[in-house]
Amino acid sequence: MSYSKPSERTSCCSLSPSKTQERSHARMLSQTTLDSELNAEYEESGNSYDYFKLVKAQRTTQSEPKQLGRPEKVIAYLQQIQRAKLIQPFGCLLALDEKSFNIIAFSENAPEMLMATVDDDAPKIKIGTNVQSIFSGHSVAALHKALKFDDVSLLNPIIVQCKTPGKQMYAIVHRSIGSLVVDLEPVKHTEFPSIAIGTTQSYKHATKAISKMQSLPGGSMQILCNTVVKEVFDLTGYDRVMAYKFHEDDHGEVIAEITKPGLEPYLGLHYPATDIPQAARVLFMKSKVRIICNCRATSVKIIEAKGLPFDISLSGSTLRAPHNCHLEYMENMNSIASLVMAVVINENREGDDVKPEEPPKGLKSRRLWGLLVCHHESPRYIPFPVRYACEFLAEVFAVHVNNEFLLEKQIREKSILDVQTMLSAMLFHEASPLSIISGSPNIMDLVKCDGAALLHGDKVWRLGMAPTEPQIHDITSWLSKVHRDSTGFSTDSLVDAGYSGATSLGDKICGMAMAKIAPNDIVFWFRSHTAADIKWGGAKHDPFDQDDNRRMHPRLSFMAFLEVVKMKCLPWNDYEMDAICSLQLILGDRMNGATKPTGAAGFDNLQIHDIKLDCLDKLHMVTSEMVHLAEATSAPILGVDVNELLNQQNRNNAIKLAKDSCLDSQDGGHQYHKLDGLAELQTMTKEMSCLMETASVPIFAVDANGLVNGWNLKLVELTGLTVQETIGRNILTLVEQSSFQVVQKMLYLALEGKEGNDVRFEVKTHSSRVDDGPIILVANACSRRDISGHVIGVFFVAQNMTVHKLAMDKFTRVDGDYKAIIHNPNPLIPPIFGADQFGWCSEWNAAMTKLTGFHRDEVLDKMLVGEVFDSSNGSCLLKNHDSVVRLCVIINSALAGEQTDKATFGFYNRNGKYIECILSAYGKENTDGIIDGVFCFIHVPSQELQHALHVKQASEQTTLRRMKAFSYMRYAINNPLSGLFHTTEALKSTGLNEEQMRHPNVADRCRRQLDKILADIDHDNITEESFCFELEMVEFVLQDVVDGAVSQVLIACQDKDIGVHVNQSEGFMKEKLYGDGIRLQQILSDILFVSVKFSTVGGSVEISCNLTKNSIGKSLDLELRIKHKGLGVPGEILSGTYKDDIKDMSGEGLSLVVSRYLLKLMNGDIHYVRKVGTSTFILTAELASARAVIGQ
User: Fold this and answer.
1) With contact defined as beta carbons under 8 Å apart, do 226 and 372 qualify?
2) Which residue intervals define the domain Histidine kinase in the entry (predicted)?
3) What pLDDT digit, counting tens, does each position of 1103-1157 carry?
């Protein structure tokens, strides 16, 4: 919150999108005023400018009410930033009148750079000179063409050739009011021989970096930032590359960095908002790449025509000279050259989403997330094509940042929801609201804070770093006077909010959020100062090692930032205030006498739930089969069913059973509700069945013997075989001989439960279709299961690829007549469009015209990305800027030789209808085998596929959210483990006797076991025998292993009144062995848990051990027997221990599988002996005697 009014709210709930935007704009205006004042001080003070002193002055006065400064200062400052008449000398500038193309302004170095001689007879560059006398005819034509584009940047760079010297220049064009501003940079083929020309060609330089980012798994913002700075470092060759992130209060932080050896690190540096002024940030939103080649070079003046009715703005110029203050900052950092790329992302505010059926009405709100910054210790020039590639790389990076934000938001929301749910449950079951303080979790777990307190009546309950009870009462009194009518309040600075007692709290308590439940019932959350959480390796800690306060430098910026955030905490985010508001409502209901349901009502609900679980199994099996079929499809395969896939009698019987069970319910209201739901399910089932039978894609089914029992109408049409002719035939008799083994293998695996995807094979044709030759299908296999989960057949959902293959074969042949296909009106030809190597639309077939509503003549020779497809001005509008970037990546990848297959794509056609489709892009080669264009094929899915895709995407997102939540829990559980470790170590140092020491020792071994299990979680194949667990070789005592394992099942034993007995002498149990005792403890605890679970109530579990020297005599064979009473472990769990397929295995079965894998690594195994009334696990493992090991 540098130099601005403290963040303060008088309502618990977060602000609406419009209010949030108003607050952002207000902060920007306030910050701009402060920027202008600092700039004026800099201009007026000269060598006496004291940066740190001014920062402190701003800090001490920021909370005082005042006007937003003098308007003339602000206006002068903004004009200086945007309309300065200086450029850098690595290029020259011309400003042209749009109508006449005469020069109305030029840089002083333009004659020298563009003209070979200065003879009197040679053309001269002066006001009024026409560019036709300077550049070749082709170059002038290219500049004229740029006038026709709404976004002229799409053409940058334009290659122009000077007439007299004949040298080539990069022309980077942008529009200013009434003129066309042209930046000109020399093309240096000798220094940069690999530099390509044109926007699309420029993207090629970023192909490797983009591919690297695209391959990242996601879920880590830090890995993403580290990757992008490394790729920019490799691409540009600068000495230092950093990723800056702007926080909500506009201050900046270096979150990723890579440097050449020997440079001072800036990673972790925080700097105040004024270090990058608001005006500069606005310019970054317009011109996203900024290069400074030499901060020591003398700037070049601009000469303008006299009497111009407008000012020529250089805000979009790549040559614009930097401000003197910034040049000084660079010099002090020993950074002579720099390259900066803006990272602009979507705001992602509620209400911003565009409905699929409605075209976007304007640009989505976007904001500057941060910067990618490159520094060099000597002058450095990077050609424009490489800079353009860097800009594209930054846009792709921004798309990934957006995705990471969404993932973080989902994880955060789930975490808050879980805490709210648990707090609600505690309030529901406990008689007192104090449970939210004394329980676990408590109110401190709801939002990030350092302390919390509850004022209930006249008493105060405190948690963590909270004010004392008198201070809480004093704060309450202040709130009642200043914010009397507010039910909620938050501030990041109690000092700036006007609380007179804030200084007595110190910097440990700076910010506060409050939710008022009732006049005497208030919940508080407290935060300490921001600087407490911030460390930077570059900061100086020696009080005698000081920087000159008048030399602007990163260390001084860091000191200024710490001064700015003095007595401030991190701002309270909207989602945190939403969470507090929700808890406020829950507490309000509870304290106002809301009651929980009675026991009878709960019992009735349980009865209905039991009926649902008991009687709807068959109906669930039928509908689940359909859903599984839809979810198993992958684009462009459709998920639909066929004739006889659903047994009508089974379905009706299932529904009838469910209805009969519901009729037995004593609660008539619930009965009718249940019947309505069943009728709805039956209607849905019938509709899905009809939909599958008439699907527009080939679908068939076979039973467990491979005999066809389903054949839909689409297959009848394609093969010429009727349903009656195929039912009962073996599927292998219907496919071509060349596909026999493929289909046989797919069928075998599917019947084993291993479903295959995208399997290609050929099917014979018959009768009227026999002359057409075999049809080519690409199919997914979906196992069909009965109620018990046994595989009883297989669905095959396919896509007819025959026509697609023929079209692709013609396109891949260079000498083929591909135009005949493109312009063929045959409805079987898919929509196809193409672009040349420079990104101009070169192909647009009849199917594309029909799909989009735009004729071929309307799109040819237009930029494919930017004119044909764009998020604001294109013929076919895309949803947002991220979609434009994704299309650029696809086109760029195809031009680089990497085809894209089955990418999701969508756009609005001429009528405003949103078209969801699948896009495949391939490079088009010329006769020399060089890619000189790209072809894109569009597949528009049917409604069935669109529904299936939506279901699949929703399922994938749910799975991803669960994975992220699981990853968080894996991380968060380390904190209580650390606490457990600290507690056990503390207990050990309290002088306990030998018997008492056993308890902390057992706790310590259980913690170490949990550490190993958590480490295993990081791998996704721990339940496979191929996974190699890490085993330690350390000394241990068998007694410790048994004690640690038994302690983990004692609670389960108490519930079933089961006793655990160890039948072994104490001397034997204290034998010192050598191996992985913790893994052995894990195995024994899992086996004991299974034994206890399947023992009879009141029974017993006996543990016996035996150690013998093996035949070689260098190791010991350990045998552990765990005997338990009862019927024993079910056979299906035991049999699964020795099978490879563990897909549907229970938790007990998985624990036996992992235990067996671990024992096999110890050269042992698991055996199970079942007798009448008792059963026994026999565990074997090979260990070493500790004495033998020491002897060796």
Assistant:
1) no
2) 968-1185
3) 998 888 876 666 888 999 999 988 888 888 887 777 665 556 777 888 888 888 8
